[in-house]
Amino acid sequence: MSNSLGRLFAASFGCIALSTTILLGLLNDEMPESILTHSLATTVVFAIVGLGIGQVADTVVRHSVEMNYRAKFEKLRERLKDAA
To answer: pTM for the full model?
Structure first.
């Protein structure tokens, strides 16, 4: 699961970049070959950026969940210690 957010962000950012670049190329009356090369380049760049952002997000979420779990576990340990 460590790469799931990275892959998800990469795919999402890549698709957004691809569709936006194609749309802008069509609106600017660019040649199809030019649209295709720009679209592929931006898709790769945005997919790499999305992968990095997704991996950071995955790390932050995992760390937050772990810290929350540890805090709750420590509270439970304290309660059991006081009860004994």
So the answer is: 0.76
